Amino acid sequence: MIKNSWQGNCFLNFFNNNSSSGNVDKTIFKSRSTSPYKLLKSTHDQEGRCILPILHTAGGLVGGDLLEFKANVEQNSKVLLTTSSAQKVYGTVGRSLINPQGIFSNQKTCINILDNSHLEYLPQETIIFANGLFNQELKVNISETSSFLFTDLVRLGRTSAGETIESGIFRSRLEILRNCDLFDDWEFIDQIELSKISFEAISGMNYMPVFGSLIWIYEKDFPKLKISDFVKNIRLFFKESKNQLSIGILENGISIRFLGSSSQEARNNFFLIWKQIRAVCGFCEPKYQGVWPLQDSINY
Fold it and tell me: What pLDDT shows up at residue 5?
C-alpha cells in the first residue's frame, strides 16, 4: 500500500422483498462502503429490478490505489449495476524517482449470484491515460438457474488530445464459476493485457484505441433454439456495423468483442445487443435514461 493512496471498499447485498402481504417482487439492498465509493439513488423498473449507479468520488485512480467491490445477489432478485462516469487511470510511469517504472492501481471485484437471480453489471468505460497502469480482477460465482451480463469498455489514451497509452498497461482477468458441489464448473475465464505493443500491432488493435467485451452467461436450461435465433440476429447486426465486432459461442453463454475508435459507438452497439438479450429472456426493454449508457442520446 502506497502512502496517500486510496483503499476503498464497497459491499452490496441484494434481496427480494416479496412478503406474505402480496407485494410485487422488488429487489432492494443493504450496503456498506468507504471512500471513494458512493452509492447514488437507486430506482426500480416495472419488473422490480434494482437499478443502482455507483460513483467514484476521487475522479480517478493513481498508482497504489486499491478498490475492492463485493456484491451478493440473493434468490429471486434482478439487479442492474452501473457507474455514473468513466473510470480514469492516471499515468505513473516516469513520474517518480523512487518508482520510475510506475505502480499499478488495482480493482478487485467479487460477485455471488444465487438461484433464479439475474445481474447486469454494465460500468462506464475505463480510460487509461498515457503511462497509466491498471489491473482489474473479477470473480463471479453463479447458480445454475441464474444469469450474468457484463460489459467492459477500455480506451487507451485520450485520443482527442493526441494521446496514446505510451508505456501504460491495462490488465484484466475475469473468472466465472458455476456453483457445483461435485467439481469446479468453469463457465468462462478471460485474461487480457493491452499495451503499446498490442495497440500498434496489425494483428492486435491496429491503432484503434477502444476495446470492448460483452459477456453473457445464461441459465443452464436456457432454450437452445432461442440462443440460435439470437446469434443469427446478432451476426446480421454485425454485417451492418462499421466497427469490428466478433462473437464467440460458449457452452452456456456468448462472448462479444468490439474494436473501434469511438467509446460512444461501442456503447451504442452493446446497448442494441443488450436490448436483444432482454427480449430473448422475456424481460422488459432497457431504458438508457439515467443509467448505462449515461452519456449517450440514442434513438433506437
Answer: 73
